[in-house]
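Handout, page 2. Input:
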Amino acid sequence: MIVDRKHDNHREIKSVGSCEVVQSFVYLGSLIENSGSCENKALVAVTNLTKIWRDHNITRATKMSLVQ
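Output:
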């Protein structure tokens, strides 16, 4: 995959010939996007903390330290 960030894809790869251009794909369980963005990864990480956010036995300070 080519991470282009500004949609400047160079489709020719000399060692392989050519490749299929895609917007995103899953690799080792992570979503890889051609923009280099990690928004989905951050969203999943925050969503996984839902039980912690709702737990009243964990202090707000501890919860905030997890975010930082």
